[in-house]
């Protein structure tokens, strides 16, 4: 196994983590910004107002995006396991 192979595997792993977690992070960021903007406009400073919508949106996002996330992680694990079986490691 060369340095280029190691670099390829590590970059694939990092990209898989970014692609799998990115949509959930974007959902949490957008809901958090919308709630913060609403709180700034109405001057309502209730902690549950920031927590509950974010948790609900993350849960719904996970329900929708879980097959995509699973496919990404499965593709990476299949690649790494094939390398192990073929003697690439």
UniProtKB/TrEMBL annotation:
The chain crosses the membrane at residues 17-39, 51-73. The keyword Transmembrane applies. Keywords: Cell membrane, Cell projection, Cilium, Flagellum, Membrane, Transmembrane, Transmembrane helix. GO terms for biological process: protein secretion. Pfam families: Bac_export_3 (PF01313). GO terms for cellular component: plasma membrane. Signal peptide: none annotated. InterPro entries: Bac_export_3 (IPR002191). It is found in: Cell membrane. It is a multi-pass membrane protein. Its main location: membrane. PANTHER family: FLAGELLAR BIOSYNTHETIC PROTEIN FLIQ. Belongs to the FliQ/MopD/SpaQ family. This is Flagellar biosynthetic protein FliQ. It comes from Alloyangia pacifica.
